[in-house]
Each structure stands twice: as structure tokens, then as C-alpha cells.
């Protein structure tokens, strides 16, 4: 066999099969395949035996799902070659591993072979190579030096990953990460039929969507702080993802890292957390999958997922995802047309790896709902309107187009040292005519204002760096250094001078304007707008993770030196356009320290102190000081937590405090400002995995105490921060019905609860709590071609409740009505 590093083994891990199965066996450095190891593994549960095997043989064994459930082994006693010992341990379990080529070893799940007629997916190994550390499920160490290729394998149940990319630190396993991070898998995305990233992160109790579901955008509150889609990273790079809405068809993972990320990320970051999108890559096994989906009220969509690998050792990969859907939504007058094309190309050699991603999407929304809906400060927040009522007129629209190209290369100068470079650029164009309302009476009377502000956003991001793993005596090091340049340019201007009607409506009985009211107006377009603002974020990060006792003690020390330049320009009609309106530049070193202590292989305690230097948000279009740019500010977090892996289910707990200068649109004056300090303290409890055979759980609860520590004039000091619930609960579950009752049938369900929250800083206005229930079925069977066919049916908002889903940033958003989603996925 040909040699490859432990990182290569993880990097070349291929897609798990329908049960989420994938496996790798890697032998320890300094040994050879022919060396015997002394083993003493008693008979009993297979899971326990495999953990003992990894410890005694110094072998890294990674398996992602329920392969070992309810299985036992006869054990082994004596000196054996590692792979011979593994064969003996698996004897009688129905599991095995086999070579399927000159450089490929596979861990086989016979149940999958029986269903599909094909072997389980393989893991390409250029050599069986000693890793020198044990591990199982989450405790195995994902790749440290490289990131091109497959991300860490899924955990038991297949819904979340055993690890995730922790910014500049690279891929880290969950138990060895001193932060609260979750990687949601392609399997979960497909099973929940998620249309955009906003649908995926509804699984996280520390994240809430603050944009209406039938608007043109996704936007989030993470740990009680605003994080827009503009702040989402694509493959670790900022300002490349769609700044309004990221669709899921081309995504392998959606990773959510909670808390500030100055050390970890190269963008300006956000206080609440960072979302990273991992693109799909081709697997060793050919893939041709067509999915047709119906969304109520009358949307039909089709998605093609095509993947192939070529070359003697399948070193070249092509993965294409194309999707189109169009039709009316359950919201009256609202229709959405979406087109997506995502092409991923990659090359994986012994020491050199490269990838290229090309993405395109369009979204055309008829009568979109607006994010910027408000309530006058003199009245109580009225009850939510019927969730099918749309205050927008039928002629309103939002049309957008997005294009992106990104690339990444990696070269192993030494087996444990990798140089890498990545970069990309994006362009987003948006043309719209939409309205916002301001409720002025408890009866629902509102002033509706039409707005036009086309824009073009350009993004560029580049990164170069080095990751190295080495020893100095008894002390291990995982060293990283990187330099990042990220640029975001906004081409737009306010068009308040346009003669557009302001009219009275009612949120319970909306008035539709005739098209003639705006038909004579020539609307400006996004392709011919002046430069309004530009942001340049340059930084250099350095970090070293010091480890002792086989990574039982891991201390990360480092920081990022950031330089943020913000410039805004005069763009309003009638003014001297092109002159610089404001400028700001700040340089700062943001330190970080993080500690992981693992007294046992499956138990970890962690703590961190980390900062971020954030570009403050500009005033939104609905504010009287619309488009005003504010200076960057510093956010600080302290966090401690614990993680425990039971083997088939994991639980995590975190206690955190974040302090950030606060930004808010005052409902009375409608002025947006960064006017004080907000402190959020919270407790997060999460669970994921398969606690019982055929029962999978994912979710948790977050308790939050968000306070306004400092406000203008001290008027609201000590009040609760607006838009932040004190309790948020999410739980998604699946149950596979017994084979004798309904083979292949799975029942799914989800509950989402958000407690009441205050709407204004004075805490005199609030919105009530709400609970949403979803339910679904999934049926898997063998199709005519011998490959799996999956039928899915989901009902979202099962009880069709109407509620205010968000009161964040001084705006209100109504939750979506009952929605039916039906799909059929066929492999060819």
C-alpha cells in the first residue's frame, strides 16, 4: 500500500451511506502494517470493544452512525496485526471491512448492500498509516492541516457532524473544541426539506430567525445578537455567500459557531456567532439523484444532484447541483421563483489538493413581506394578524441575482505541515419596490410606505496560511498562522425623493394600491448605482494549541490583529454625490485563550475568553437616519462548558456572558443608533444522537438574561434587551417504525418554543410567547433500478397558529402559516 497521513485519511472520507455509515482505520506512526500489537479485549458490547481496541492498538477508528448498536463481540486476546485483530473483533457481528481498489478500504454495512445492491461508500487511503492516538465517534481527531475534501463524518444518527471547522484552527472534533459548535449535515437538510439556511438553523435553540419567511432575506439573532446573512462565511471565507438568502441545494454542511470569533474568522464577525457553509464534493461512488418537491400553496420544484470522480485513484471530482422552483406560497398575493446552480470541482493528490466552486442563484419575489415593520411607542403591540394576510400590494416585487466564484489550494510541505491559500469574489444585484408599515392603533391601523432602494453588493475575500502539528518534548503543538483580506462594497443610494404614495392600511384587512399609483414612476435599477460604502477588513491571526497526555489537556493561546476601514459616500439625489460622507479606521489586537480538559476520553470541560471587532450595522432604510454608517466596536465573551459522549448520544452544556455596544431603532423617533452597552448571559443545554435504536433526537434549550447595561442618559439601564426571549426550546425527533410493522417508514416531529419578549427599550411593549409544531413521515424503499427511493411529507406549523415570530431590532415579523411539503427523491 502507498502511504498517506492521518489527515489524508480523514480528508478522503467519502459520503456516508443511507444509514450515515462511513469508516476509516488508520494505523499508528512509526509502525508498519506487519507489526503485532498486544491486545486484551473481553467479549461484550461491540462499542465497548472498539473503544478498547483504539486505546490498546493505538489505532484511530472512526465510525459515524449506528453500526454497532445492539451488537456484541467475542473479543480478542494476544498479539495480532491491527487489521487482523479488527477482523476478529468484527467476527459474527455482520460487519466487515474490505479493499475495493489499490488504495481504498471500506467498512461495509451489509444492510445497505442488501437494500441498494451496491457496496457501502468507500474511504480512499493511499496507505494505512499509524495515527498514534485512539478515538471513537466524537473523540477521534478530524483533520488539522487540510480542509479540502469531505468534512468530519456524521455522528450517530447522521444529523450532526463529529466535528466542524473552527475558523483558522481548522477542523476539530466536538470534544476537542473549546467552543459551542454544531455542524448540521446534508442528511438532516434533506430529511427536513430545508429550502434555505434559515430552515436548517431552526434546530439550534440559541438561534432565532428575525426576518419574515416570505421576504427576500434571511436574518438571525444568535445568542441574542443580530447576525445577518451578509455575515455568513462560505467555505471559511467572508463576503462570498449570498448576502440575502443562502439556498441549501449545494451545501454539504451548515456549521454554527456560537459567540464572537475574532481569532477564528477573517471577516469582521458578529457578536452572537458565525455561520459557515460547507460546499458539496463528489464522493467515490457515482451519484445521480433527482428530487421533485411540492410546497403549498402551489410551488413545484426540481433538484438534480450529480457527482462523479475520475482518474486512476479517483483524484478528480465533479459535483453539480441545479434546482428550480416557482409558484404561489401560502401567503396571499405572494409568489417566489428560485433558480440555483452550484458546481464544485476538486483534485486530491498525495500532497496537493485544490477545489473550485461556482455558484449562481436568482430569486424573484412577488408581493414580498418586509422586515422593517414597526409599532408606534404609544400603543401596546397588537395581536399578530392572520398568517395568510399580506399587507403588500400585488405589484410590489423583489428581484435578485447572485454570482460567486471561490477557490482553495493546499500543499503538504511535511506530513504534518500544510500551506494553504483561498480566495473568491461575489456580486449580488437587487431591484425592488416594497412597502413597510408602522402600526399606529391597537385596532391594526397602519401607515404603509413604499420604498425603492436598488443595490449592488460586491465581495472579495482572500486568505493564506500555514497549519502545523509537531512535538517539543512532552508538549504537543497545533500551530496556525493566517492572513486575511476581506472587502465588501455597497453600491446604492436612498430614493426618498421619489414620488411614491404613503397610504393608510390595516394589518388585519390590508388595502391594495392600484398599479396605476406607481405605473408612471421610472424605477432606478441596481446596475447603475454609485458607491455608497466600502469596508476593508485586513487581519493576521496566530494561535498555538498546546496539548499534554494524548490531548487530555489542550490550551489554545492566540489572537488576531485586525484593521477595519469603513468609508461612506454622498449618494442622495440633489447632493454633491461622490464626496466622502464619513470615514473610520481602527486597528486592534483581539486576544483569545481557550482550554479543554478531558479527564476521560468521552468527557470534556472547556472555557474560553474571546473578542471580536465588529463593523457596526448601518441604519436601515426605515430609520430616519437611513444608511448612516457607524464605527466598529469591540465585543467580549467569557464562556465555560462541558460535553459528554455516551457513544450513541451526546449532551453539551454552556454558560456564557457577552458584552457588546448596542444598536437599536427607537420606535418613537425611528432613529437608529449605537447608543449603549448590552450584556447577555445565558445557559445552553443541547442533545444529539440516537439514544435508542431507531430513535434520533436533536435540540436543546437556551435560557437567556439579556440586559441593557448602559443606555443614553441611563433611562433604560437594567431593562431587558428588546427582541431577546428569556427561554428558547427546540426539539426534533425521528422514530423508525419496527420492520414487522412498517419497514422503511420513519415518523418525524419538531417543537419550537420562544418565550415572550419585549419590543422596546422601555419594556412597556411586548409580544407573547409562541409554540410551533411540525410533523412528518419518511418512507425509504428499493426502486426499480435497485437503488433507494425516499418519499418525504412534512407539515410545518401543524396547528396553523398566527404569532409574532420575532420582535428583534425594533421590527416585527409574522410566522409562516401551515405549510405542506411533499417530495420524492430517486437515485439513478
* Envelope shape: globular
CATH H-level homologous superfamily name of the largest domain: TonB-dependent receptor, beta-barrel domain
Low-confidence stretches: 1-34, 99-106, 109-146
Question: Describe the biggest sheet?
Answer: 22 strands, antiparallel, barrel
Strand content: over 45%
Q: Tally the beta strands.
A: 48
Number of helices: 7
- How far apart are the termini? 33 Å
The number of distinct structural domains comes to: 2
**Class of the largest domain in CATH?**
Mainly Beta
- State Rg: 27 Å
Helix and strand content put the structural class at: mainly beta
User: And the CATH topology of the largest domain?
Assistant: Maltoporin, Chain A
Helix content: under 10%
Indicate the CATH architecture of the largest domain. Beta Barrel
Mean pLDDT: 85
Q: How would you concisely characterize the structure shown here?
A:
The protein is mainly beta and 828 residues long. The protein is 6% helix and 51% strand. α2 (46-57) packs antiparallel against α3.
Amino acid at each position: 500500500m502507498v502511504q498517506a497521513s492521518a489527515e489524508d485519511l480523514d480528508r478522503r472520507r467519502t459520503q456516508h451511506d443511507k444509514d450515515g455509515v462511513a469508516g476509516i482505520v488508520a494505523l499508528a506512526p512509526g509502525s508498519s502494517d506487519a507489526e503485532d500489537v498486544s491486545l486484551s479485549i473481553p467479549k461484550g458490547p461491540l462499542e465497548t470493544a472498539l473503544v478498547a481496541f483504539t486505546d490498546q492498538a493505538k489505532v484511530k477508528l472512526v465510525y459515524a452512525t449506528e453500526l454497532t448498536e445492539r451488537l456484541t463481540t467475542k473479543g480478542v486476546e494476544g498479539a495480532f496485526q491491527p487489521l487482523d485483530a479488527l477482523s476478529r473483533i468484527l467476527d459474527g457481528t455482520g460487519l466487515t471491512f474490505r479493499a475495493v481498489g489499490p488504495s481504498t478500504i471500506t467498512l461495509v454495512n451489509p444492510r445497505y448492500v442488501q437494500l441498494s445492491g451496491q457496496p457501502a461508500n468507500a474511504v480512499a487511503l493511499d496507505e494505512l498509516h499509524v495515527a498514534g492516538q485512539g478515538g471513537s465517534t466524537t473523540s477521534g481527531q478530524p483533520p488539522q492541516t487540510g480542509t479540502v475534501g469531505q468534512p468530519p463524518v456524521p455522528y450517530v444518527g447522521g444529523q450532526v457532524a463529529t466535528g466542524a471547522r473552527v475558523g483558522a484552527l481548522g477542523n476539530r472534533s466536538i470534544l476537542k473544541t473549546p467552543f459551542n459548535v454544531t455542524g448540521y449535515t446534508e442528511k438532516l437538510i434533506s430529511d427536513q426539506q430545508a429550502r434555505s439556511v434559515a430552515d436548517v438553523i431552526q434546530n439550534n435553540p440559541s438561534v432565532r430567525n428575525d426576518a419574515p419567511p416570505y421576504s427576500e432575506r434571511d436574518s438571525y439573532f444568535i445568542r441574542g445578537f443580530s447576525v445577518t446573512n451578509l455575515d455568513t462565511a462560505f467555505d471559511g471565507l467572508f463576503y462570498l455567500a449570498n448576502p440575502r438568502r443562502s439556498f441549501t441545494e449545494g451545501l454539504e454542511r451548515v456549521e454554527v459557531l456560537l459567540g464572537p470569533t475574532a481569532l477564528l474568522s477573517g471577516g469582521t464577525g458578529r457578536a452572537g456567532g458565525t455561520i459557515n457553509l460547507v460546499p458539496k464534493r463528489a464522493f467515490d461512488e457515482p451519484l445521480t439523484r433527482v428530487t421533485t418537491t411540492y410546497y403549498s400553496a402551489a410551488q413545484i420544484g426540481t433538484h438534480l444532484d450529480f457527482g462523479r470522480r475520475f482518474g486512476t485513484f479517483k483524484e478528480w471530482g465533479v459535483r453539480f447541483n441545479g434546482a428550480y422552483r416557482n409558484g404561489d406560497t401560502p401567503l396571499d398575493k405572494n409568489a417566489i421563483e428560485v433558480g440555483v446552480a452550484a458546481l464544485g470541482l476538486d483534485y486530491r493528490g498525495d500532497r496537493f489538493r485544490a477545489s473550485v466552486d461556482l455558484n449562481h442563484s436568482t430569486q424573484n419575489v412577488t408581493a414580498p413581506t418586509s422586515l422593517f415593520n414597526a409599532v408606534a411607542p404609544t400603543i401596546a403591540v397588537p395581536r399578530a394578524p392572520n398568517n395568510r394576510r399580506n399587507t403588500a400590494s400585488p405589484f410590489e416585487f423583489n428581484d435578485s441575482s447572485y454570482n460567486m466564484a471561490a477557490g482553495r489550494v493546499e500543499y503538504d510541505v511535511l506530513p504534518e505541515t500544510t500551506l494553504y491559500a483561498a480566495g473568491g469574489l461575489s456580486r449580488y444585484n437587487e431591484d425592488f419596490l416594497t412597502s413597510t408599515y408602522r402600526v399606529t392603533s391597537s385596532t391594526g391601523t397602519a401607515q404603509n410606505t413604499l420604498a425603492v432602494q436598488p443595490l449592488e453588493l460586491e465581495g472579495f475575500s482572500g486568505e493564506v496560511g500555514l497549519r502545523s502539528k509537531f512535538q517539543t518534548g512532552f508538549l504537543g503543538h497545533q500551530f496556525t498562522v493566517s492572513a486575511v483580506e476581506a472587502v465588501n462594497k455597497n453600491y446604492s443610494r436612498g430614493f426618498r425623493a421619489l414620488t411614491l404614495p404613503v397610504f393608510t392600511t390595516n394589518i388585519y384587512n390590508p388595502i391594495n394600491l392600484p398599479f396605476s399609483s406607481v405605473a408612471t414612476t421610472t424605477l432606478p435599477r441596481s446596475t447603475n448605482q454609485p458607491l455608497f460604502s466600502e469596508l476593508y477588513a485586513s487581519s493576521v491571526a496566530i494561535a498555538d494549541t498546546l496539548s499534554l497526555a494524548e490531548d487530555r489537556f489542550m490550551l489554545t493561546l492566540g489572537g488576531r490583529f485586525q484593521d477595519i476601514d469603513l468609508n461612506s459616500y454622498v449618494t442622495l439625489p440633489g447632493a454633491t454625490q461622490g464626496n466622502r460622507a464619513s470615514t473610520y479606521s481602527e486597528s486592534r489586537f483581539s486576544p483569545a485563550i481557550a482550554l479543554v480538559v478531558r479527564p476521560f476520553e468521552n468527557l470534556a470541560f472547556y472555557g474560553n475568553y474571546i473578542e471580536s471587532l465588529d463593523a457596526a450595522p448601518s441604519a436601515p432604510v426605515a430609520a430616519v437616519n437611513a444608511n448612516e454608517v457607524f464605527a466598529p466596536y469591540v465585543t467580549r465573551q467569557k464562556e465555560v462548558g462541558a460535553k459528554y459522549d455516551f457513544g450513541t448520544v451526546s449532551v453539551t452544556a454552556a454558560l456564557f456572558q457577552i458584552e457588546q455596544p448596542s444598536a437599536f431603532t427607537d420606535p418613537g423617533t425611528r432613529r437608529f443608533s449605537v447608543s449603549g452597552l448590552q450584556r447577555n448571559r445565558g445557559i445552553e443545554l443541547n442533545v444529539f444522537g440516537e439514544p435508542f435504536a431507531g430513535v434520533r433526537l436533536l435540540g436543546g434549550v437556551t435560557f437567556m438574561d439579556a440586559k441593557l447595561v448602559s443606555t443614553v442618559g441611563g433611562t433604560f439601564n437594567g431593562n431587558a434587551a428588546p427582541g431577546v426571549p428569556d427561554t428558547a426550546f427546540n426539539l426534533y425527533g425521528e422514530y423508525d417504525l419496527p420492520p414487522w410493522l412498517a419497514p422503511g417508514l420513519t415518523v418525524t416531529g419538531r417543537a419550537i418554543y420562544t418565550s415572550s419578549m419585549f419590543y422596546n427599550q422601555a419594556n412597556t411593549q411586548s409580544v407573547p410567547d409562541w409554540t410551533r409544531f411540525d410533523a412528518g413521515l419518511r418512507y425509504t424503499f428499493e426502486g426499480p433500478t435497485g437503488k433507494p427511493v425516499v418519499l418525504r411529507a412534512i407539515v410545518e406549523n401543524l396547528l396553523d397558529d398566527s404569532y409574532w415570530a420575532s420582535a428583534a431590532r425594533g421590527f416585527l415579523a409574522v410566522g409562516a402559516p401551515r405549510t405542506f411539503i411533499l417530495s420524492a427523491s430517486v437515485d439513478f
